Amino acid sequence: MNGQQRVNIRAGLEVDIVLKQDQATGKLTRGIVKDLLTKSPTHPHGIKVRLTNGQVGRVKQIISGAAQ
């Protein structure tokens, strides 16, 4: 699943995000979603989230359905 639709993303999911400083290179960072920051139902560059470690970025790929 991709990260462009808010309905697909919830707290506890394992996702790959692109951090603001990595947008030029497309480097992905993996983590667990803590908060959803984008309010609109969709976003062309991915829904913005905060990970449990505090990093903020846009979801590029959903890895798993629930944190273990």
Backbone structural class: mainly beta
Describe the strand arrangement of the main beta sheet, using strand numbers: 1-2-3-4
Number of domains: 1
Q: Give the overall shape, derived from the CA principal axes.
A: globular
Pfam families: DUF2196
InterPro entries: DUF2196 (IPR019240)
Protein name: Repeat protein (TIGR03833 family)
Organism: Paenibacillus amylolyticus
Write the topology of this structure.
Blueprint: E1 14-19, E2 28-36, E3 48-51, E4 56-64
Antiparallel strand pairs: 1-2, 1-4, 2-3, 3-4
Verbal overview:
This is Repeat protein (TIGR03833 family). InterPro entries: DUF2196 (IPR019240). There is one protein chain. By secondary structure, the chain is an all-beta fold. It has one domain. Helices cover 0% and strands 41% of the residues. It is built from no helices and 4 strands. A 4-stranded antiparallel barrel has the order 1-2-3-4. The protein is globular and about 25 Å long. The protein starts with 13 loop residues before the first strand and ends with a strand.
Q: What are the main properties of this structure?
A:
68 residues, mainly beta, four-stranded antiparallel β-barrel, globular
Q: How would you sum up this structure in a few lines?
A:
This is Repeat protein (TIGR03833 family). The protein has 68 residues and is mainly beta. Helix content is 0%, strand content 41%.
